[in-house]
Amino acid sequence: MLRNSLIGSLRQIKPILCSQSLRSLSNGANSGLTTIEVDDKSGIATLSMNLPPVNTLTLNLMHDLIDSINQIECNKSRGLILTSSNDKVFSAGLDLKELYKPDQERLKEFWTIFQDLWLALHLCGIPTAAAINGHAPAAGCIMATACEYRVMLPDFVIGVHATRFSFLVSKWMMLSYQSVLPRRIVERALNQGKLFSTQEALEVGLIDEVAGSKKEALAQCAAFIGTFDKANPIARTLTKRMCRDSDVTELLRDRAGDLRACVDYINTPLFQEGLSAHLEGLKEKK
Ligand SMILES: CC/C=C\C/C=C\CCC/C=C/CC(=O)SCCNC(=O)CCNC(=O)[C@H](O)C(C)(C)COP(=O)(O)OP(=O)(O)OC[C@H]1O[C@@H](n2cnc3c(N)ncnc32)[C@H](O)[C@@H]1OP(=O)(O)O
């Protein structure tokens, strides 16, 4: 709903009326796969993904994330911190089972909601940060790069390793990565299918800080959000959207075309064989 309004005019202030009262952050119509906690003192909302075992982005989790982002924005929180309830995995990325021999209509719905989630994070009017308290491969990394700041715990990996399984990524996903890292590093990392260790991610600038614990990561994200205290919130929102305009427009100018290309690619033998081998590899790990 909010996203559709924004799609109409990226430069406009959020045009919908948010009728919920401040801090009444119930998870109403969603499936309860996310939780929102608002710090009374700072007014910052922590949005946790809570889909065991590894926060795969299923249709329901993506729906809940979008719903929660909308709620947090509507309730005038000062900022949003995205994190995970799992202490080893931030998010394992898209649910691979949705991509394997998919039902065509469901696949279209799945890809469209993934586009929606990316837009929701990119266009979120309030400051956003990711407390990456576990592994963040593939779409887990893309969600983190859609936030404005990233703090990660040691000994985990982050990156887009799609080429390892003959996957491609859409241009708008690459642009997220490229909004954080220099183009030459993105080109190399995407082609290699590189997963960066926490330390490597810090060195290249994929993350902004390392934290010793989740508590510290949340505090560091909150400190980042506090750096906007002197900015007028409306001017800040408009400026953020202006800075992100070209990346967002890349997706919005032809969402249907992106959907078609992705659905076509996912249905190819090349993709399905790579995915089958990847799923086997995940099973054999045990
Ligand atoms: C023009 C063309 C343009 C575009 C092309 C279109 C589309 C292409 C699609 C490209 C999109 C890419 C984005 C993605 O996000 S794809 C998802 C990629 N993610 C992964 O590969 C992550 C795989 N998982 C892991 O590496 C590990 O699970 C992880 C390191 C995250 C955690 O390890 P841990 O040891 O803690 O857990 P596991 O035992 O491995 O996992 C537990 C169970 O969860 C299952 N699992 C894990 N990840 C996924 C997943 N992404 N989807 C579904 N299921 C997953 C795993 O198999 C285990 O299951 P069980 O064995 O317990 O049943």
UniProtKB/TrEMBL annotation:
Pfam families: ECH_1
Recorded GO MF terms: delta(3)-delta(2)-enoyl-CoA isomerase activity
Catalytically driven reaction(s): (3Z)-octenoyl-CoA = (2E)-octenoyl-CoA; (3Z)-decenoyl-CoA = (2E)-decenoyl-CoA; (2E)-tetradecenoyl-CoA = (3Z)-tetradecenoyl-CoA; (3Z)-dodecenoyl-CoA = (2E)-dodecenoyl-CoA
Keywords: Acetylation, Fatty acid metabolism, Isomerase, Lipid metabolism, Mitochondrion, Transit peptide
GO-annotated cellular components: mitochondrial matrix
Involved pathway(s): Lipid metabolism; fatty acid beta-oxidation
Any GO BP annotation: fatty acid beta-oxidation
Compartments where located: Mitochondrion matrix
Subunit record text: Homotrimer.
Role description: Key enzyme of fatty acid beta-oxidation. Able to isomerize both 3-cis (3Z) and 3-trans (3E) double bonds into the 2-trans (2E) form in a range of enoyl-CoA species, with a preference for (3Z)-enoyl-CoAs over (3E)-enoyl-CoAs. The catalytic efficiency of this enzyme is not affected by the fatty acyl chain length.
Protein name: Enoyl-CoA delta isomerase 1, mitochondrial
Source organism of this protein record: Drosophila persimilis
Lineage: Eukaryota, Metazoa, Ecdysozoa, Arthropoda, Hexapoda
The encoding gene: Dper\GL18945
